[in-house]
């Protein structure tokens, strides 16, 4: 009793000070942005709010930009919050003046555009750039792209695409960073930092993480197809790069076209509202992909566009791209109680906050500086960076008997439809890039080789002789020109017979890959295969230069040609960059970030697969294998050669057992044993030998890109922590488990040496 009395006295004393109750906690003062947005929203009508959630497109033609008459009226009435596909300082100023001067509340527009791998100065496609394994270079290219785009009137890019993809039939593998979750997350972070910088100072732009989520897992590799993945695949493979961009402060998200667990992503409340906005505490805004709300009717989860709009905004969508569903039906949905006004207000606040952070309320014309556009866009420094980053992205796949580098003497035959081609150098999704200003391989080789080399060119073959494919591609801007195949082949053979060495530039046209460009057969087209077979009969040394936006099946090429260089679509400076590598001015150091299958029948094939209960055994018929080809890819993840050679010692761990609070140090000595200075990407992988759920055979956890002079050795050190050992256990808890682990270090995911350690309680 005595204790209780004392307690009561203490409680009474706690709630009274000099006879007065303590004041209630005062809410934290609003930030200037909160105050500004709150005050603005109090003045807005429902129609004006819906306008902020609506995005329409501008049109770009050879004669210049234009806005559709109806959209012009919508802007001046305050019924549009964003315009995309509009750029140049003069044009965006014109549209911004419509919004700021003619509307009641003078709310500025956000101008968005697909600045995917450069704005006017085009860098390698993202898949190619990821092969550099150079995070600083990728951040730099995004920063240059942002500087050019912001100088050209833009505020916002629909990049980076962070979809993990393991099916090269899907054309959009070109737009991502490949098959690995850990590396993909690092690259996603680097690109967000590059686009957005430390803040929106007028030289950076807002990034947009896409496509949320699962788009890279479309069935059959067919674009826009359905996706069916488990919760485990979602959390372990698909979602981590998206979360990485949230942590990096990305300004916006874009939903994907596909469904997750039977619900289209654009209406998936669990995915958008519960995970992204609540669990991850994401404060940016979410935009749909192009007309994705409208397309939900085709999915079959709603009966009409009005219901689609209600499902989308109730799921957490903040902006409707091009579909006009919010514009047509949202007011009615609110009046019927199908959508709460608070849901609308939350979406509007997120869009207005983005405009505030971009500085558009302080200065709507902040990004409309024609003088900066003249000095920034395609500057010498930007072009130099494009050439350097392109060189870093090239991957040497084969170099039997050191055919490469080429000598700067003698005669070379350059043969193939990509040999003197400017159009395809900048690749797919090159946006505002002008292919007329790109450097062809022929131009680059002549410039780098100098007068001591005779270089003769012949096209040799069309990209494809399939008229149906040519017609289809040309209706979509493919720009394919077809010539008589027999004449082309004869010209190529005549040129090849006179040469000491033959360089063959073959692969895909830019329109054969990217969005809406899935291929069931990812071999080099038959017209070019015929050319290669004929050239092979000459018995001369051949260097195969590949240009493509995806892994290709290359079993015949690998078996018959001594040298193969993967160059992707390398951008504005492609020809110069490729020539730098061919002639040895630059020693290639790129490594694949996606596996190259031997055959389409292997797909999906990726390095961090799990081990089956019946692993391949040549002596056991009833084991997991193909009858006609090996199980492993032709070129594995992390693979890439150099003009020099590197040797590795066995990795050494400083402890045989660690606790969750410990760090494990791993060291290995790498030596340059060849005749050239060069860079090597030293890769570290782990394996959890036994888990409550089965674990992959290898998982990338770190890498170092190291430069070594010939004859030089360096000790490379890595540190592993408990975070590197975590996974989603049998209860979907993200944790590590005590047990045996392996650590692997090597030049790619296949060629490694290992050491063992234990994690103990």
UniProtKB/TrEMBL annotation:
Keywords on record: Glycosidase, Hydrolase, Periplasm, Signal
GO biological process: glucan catabolic process
EC nos: 3.2.1.21
Gene Ontology terms for molecular function: beta-glucosidase activity
Location of the protein in the cell: Periplasm
Enzyme class (EC, first level): hydrolase
PROSITE patterns, sorted: GLYCOSYL_HYDROL_F3 (PS00775)
A single cellular component GO annotation: periplasmic space
Signal peptide: 1-21
Ranges of residues in domain Fibronectin type III-like: 680-749
Catalysed reactions listed for this entry: Hydrolysis of terminal, non-reducing beta-D-glucosyl residues with release of beta-D-glucose
Superkingdom, taxonomy of origin: Bacteria
Family per similarity comment: Belongs to the glycosyl hydrolase 3 family.
Protein's UniProt name: Periplasmic beta-glucosidase
Organism field: Mucilaginibacter polytrichastri
């Amino acid at each position: 009793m005595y204790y209780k009395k004392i307690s009561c006295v203490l409680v009474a004393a706690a709630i009274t000070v000099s006879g007065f109750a303590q004041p209630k906690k005062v809410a934290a003062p609003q930030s200037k942005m909160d105050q500004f947005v709150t005050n603005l929203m109090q003045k807005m009508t429902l129609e004006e709010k819906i306008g902020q959630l609506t995005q329409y497109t501008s049109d770009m033609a050879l004669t210049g930009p234009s806005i559709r008459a109806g959209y012009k009226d919508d802007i001046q009435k305050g019924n549009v919050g964003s315009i995309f596909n509009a750029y140049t300082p003069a044009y965006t100023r014109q549209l911004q003046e419509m919004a700021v001067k003619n509307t009641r509340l003078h709310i500025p527009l956000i101008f968005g555009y697909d600045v995917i791998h450069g704005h006017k100065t085009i860098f390698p496609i993202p898949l190619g750039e990821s092969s550099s394994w150079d995070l600083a270079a990728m951040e730099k290219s995004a920063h240059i792209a942002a500087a050019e785009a912001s100088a050209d009137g833009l505020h916002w890019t629909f990049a980076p695409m962070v979809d993990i993809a393991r099916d090269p039939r899907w054309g959009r593998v070109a737009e991502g960073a490949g098959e690995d979750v850990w590396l993909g997350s690092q690259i996603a972070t680097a690109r967000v930092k590059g686009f957005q910088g430390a803040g929106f100072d007028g030289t950076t732009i807002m990034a947009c993480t896409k496509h949320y989520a699962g788009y890279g897992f479309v069935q059959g590799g067919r674009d826009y197809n359905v996706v069916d993945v488990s919760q485990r695949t979602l959390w372990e493979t698909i979602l981590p790069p998206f979360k990485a961009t949230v942590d990096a402060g990305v300004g916006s998200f874009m939903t994907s076209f596909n469904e997750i667990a039977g619900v289209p992503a654009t209406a998936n409340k669990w995915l958008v509202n519960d995970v992204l906005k609540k669990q991850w505490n994401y404060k940016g805004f979410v935009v749909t992909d192009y007309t994705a709300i409208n397309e939900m009717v085709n999915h079959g989860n709603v009966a009409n566009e009005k219901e689609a709009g209600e499902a989308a905004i109730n799921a957490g969508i903040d902006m409707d791209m091009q579909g006009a569903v919010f514009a047509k039906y949202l007011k009615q949905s609110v009046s019927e109680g199908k959508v709460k006004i608070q849901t609308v207000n939350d979406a509007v606040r997120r869009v207005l906050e983005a405009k505030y952070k971009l500085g558009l309320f302080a200065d709507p014309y902040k990004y409309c500086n024609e003088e900066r556009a003249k000095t920034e866009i395609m500057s010498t420094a930007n072009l130099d960076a494009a050439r350097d980053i392109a060189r870093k992205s090239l991957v040497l796949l084969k170099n039997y008997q050191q055919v490469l580098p080429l000598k700067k003497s003698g005669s070379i035959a350059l043969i193939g439809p990509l040999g003197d081609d400017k159009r395809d150098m900048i690749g797919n999704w090159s946006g505002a890039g002008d292919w007329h200003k790109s450097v062809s391989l022929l131009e680059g080789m002549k410039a780098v080789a100098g007068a001591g080399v005779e270089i003769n060119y012949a096209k040799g073959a069309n990209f494809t002789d399939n008229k149906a494919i040519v017609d289809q591609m040309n209706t979509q801007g493919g720009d394919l020109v077809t010539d008589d195949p027999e004449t082309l082949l004869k010209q190529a053979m005549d040129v090849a017979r006179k040469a000491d060495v033959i360089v063959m530039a073959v692969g895909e046209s830019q329109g054969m890959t990217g969005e809406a460009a899935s291929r069931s057969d990812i071999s080099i087209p038959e017209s070019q295969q015929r050319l290669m077979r004929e050239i092979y009969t000459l018995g001369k040394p051949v260097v195969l230069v590949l240009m493509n936006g995806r892994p290709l099946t290359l079993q015949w090429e690998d078996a018959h040609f001594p040298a193969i260089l993967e160059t992707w679509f390398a951008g504005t400076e492609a020809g110069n960059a490729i020539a730098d590598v061919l002639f040895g001015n630059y020693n290639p150091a790129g490594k694949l970030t996606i596996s190259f299958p031997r055959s389409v029948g292997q797909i999906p094939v990726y390095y961090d697969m799990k081990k089956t209960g019946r692993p391949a055994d040549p002596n056991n018929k009833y084991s997991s294998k193909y009858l006609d080809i090996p199980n492993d890819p032709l070129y594995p993840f992390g693979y890439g050669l150099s003009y020099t050679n590197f040797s590795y010692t066995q990795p050494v761990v400083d402890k045989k057992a660690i606790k969750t609070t410990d760090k494990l140090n791993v060291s290995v000595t790498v030596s340059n044993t060849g005749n050239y200075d060069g860079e090597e990407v030293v890769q570290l992988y782990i394996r959890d030998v036994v888990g409550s759920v089965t674990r992959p055979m290898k998982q990338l956890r770190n890498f170092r890109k190291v430069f070594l002079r010939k004859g030089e050795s360096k000790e490379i050190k890595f540190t592993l922590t408990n975070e590197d050992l975590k996974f989603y256990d049998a209860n979907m808890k993200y944790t590590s488990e005590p047990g045996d682990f392996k650590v692997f270090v090597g030049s790619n995911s296949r060629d490694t040496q290992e050491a063992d350690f234990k994690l103990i309680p």
